[in-house]
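[Q] Does anyone have a clean structure-token version of this?
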Amino acid sequence: MSKTDNATEATRPSNFLEQIIERDLAEGRVPDNNVVTRFPPEPNGFLHVGHATSICLNFGLAEKYQGECNLRFDDTNPEKEEQVYIDAIQEDIEWLGFKWAGNVRFASSYFDQFYEWALHLIREGKAYVDHQDAETMRENRGNFNKPGVETADRRKSVEDNLAEFEKMRAGEYEEGQVTLRARIDLQSANMNMRDPVLYRIRKVPHHQTGDKWCIYPSYDFAHGQEDAIEGVTHSICTLEFQDHRPLYEWFLENLPVPAKPTQYEFARTNLNYVVTSKRKLKRLVDEGLVTGWDDPRMPTVSGMRRRGYTPASIRKFAEMVGISRTDGIADFSMLEHAIRDDLNTNAARAMAVLNPLKVVITNLPEGDVQEMTAAAHPNRPELGDRTLPFTRELYIDRADFNEDNSLSRKKFKRLVTDEYIRLRGSYVIKHEETIKDDNGEITEIRCRYIPGTVGENPPEGVRPRGVIHWVSASHGQEAELRIYDRLFTHEAPDRGEEDFLVHMNPESFKVTKAWVEPGLAAARPEQGFQFEREGYFVADRYDHSSEKPVFNLTIGLKDTWASKAK
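[A] Here you go.
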């Protein structure tokens, strides 16, 4: 079956880009019927949630139409680019479940070709070396109400420009002294067409080419030509590049490129309560306001991963947001819903007591251990069972006991004085005595267990108020819990005149201790759990160990921000 046939048999297109691709395939406009997309990050920071949706789009389209998606680093600005970002981006893409076609590509691999194409434009009289500084150039380009001004440099001969460009390459000029510009139209209503810069001087080493070059192409000059070299059929950008498309097409028309790709634009993913500017995210890192790019509060892919988000949940979020031609803002709760839904279905259950109150089972002899068995997941038998040691001393949550037994069962479904409660997966117990210290604080409670109530209905006259979670005090293990919340309290933290940092949430991170089931010490790093009645947690990717368990709060069981917003 051909790729065209496969495309026909694929599910009906769900967005305008799929409609375009299916039309192009049907009309024979795709060479060899091989759809080629690309994901072109600049390696100047870690990928964030917006990039994640773009990854899902570009790689997803290639998957759907049995084509290819290239990973290409647009590394034309060596001042801000680092190898650590390159490594992190590759890791993020693979973690999300995608694989790029062939080897990793770099714009810098094409620098020799770009240089030759720059010479081609100069020889054609379509590029010139400009000696204006940046401020003067900006002034002379004009604005929407003022046409650009032609300078003497723009009228120089081809020979003069070739000589000047060679001086640029040889390092005879300093940064900011000269640039190479395209000669297009200083009167254009589209500012991007008013003689854009093709090359500028940067006397810094490049992470791929070392000291070979001191001139570097602009993104606009490199973009379309990279696509042409790689045989990209559908170059998909965010809406901010819509006004750049005429320039993209101008270069393809005026250079001897091997192919003619087409650029399409879609609306980027914007989230409330989030900052995605790389410059601002880097500021958070550089000023120590977060622990790094992978801080679980950060909207980076690596941050979400460490927080306990799953690839499936992020891909689901991208599907929920969809593809649009107009900008909008998605509610952060959509992302939280995606992870909550995924973990509810797939995360194993466990018990952790965050605010422990000791319970002494008076009718269980010291040293006796009874092993209880509980399902790892109520609806996933394939996940198996877990063992819960029932011992004389247990911990329950302090909030699960109240001395006032006049409280109605409807209002308080937990343990009260002289009444019964069921321990999850274990016995029904009855309160007998409350022990307090000299300050009147409860230090422990004493109960007895009711034999024959494990997995069975209690005998007549024994009416448990409800079910509570618990952990063995002697066999459980103390763990560190890192409680995370949204990093910002304002739904649009980086808009307006205020510094976005004033909207940082002072309650976004705290550390507490908890007693956890003994089996949780053996959890794998990045293994997620639902801690009963507490939330979804994940074993920290780097810090968790059997000797020192560390769990990060991924998301609460319910959306508490919706009520805050109201």
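[Q] Thanks! Anything notable?
[A] Confidence is low (pLDDT under 50) at residues 4-9.
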